[in-house]
Amino acid sequence: MRRTQLYLDDELWGTLRIRSKQAGTSVSQLVRQAVREKYCQGVANRQKAMQDFAGIWKDRTDLADSTAYVRALRKGSRLERMR
Q: Is the pTM for the entire model greater than 0.70?
C-alpha cells in the first residue's frame, strides 16, 4: 500500500468524518472505497464481460468449422505469390 496526501475542503472533510463515524471506519477507508468504486469497477466489469463473451458462439451449428476454413486459406498459393 502507498501513502498519499489529499487536500479536502472543510465541507468534504466534515461529510467524510461524519460518514466514517456512522460506518465505524476511517476516512481513509472511505476514500479508498470511493476510488475503487469510481475507477476500478470498470476494469472488473470489462474483465467479466470478456470472460462471459469468450466462447459465446461455440454451440452454433450454422457456422462452418473455423479450423477447416483457416487450413484451406493456408493451402493457397500466397507464399508463391510473395516471391
A: no
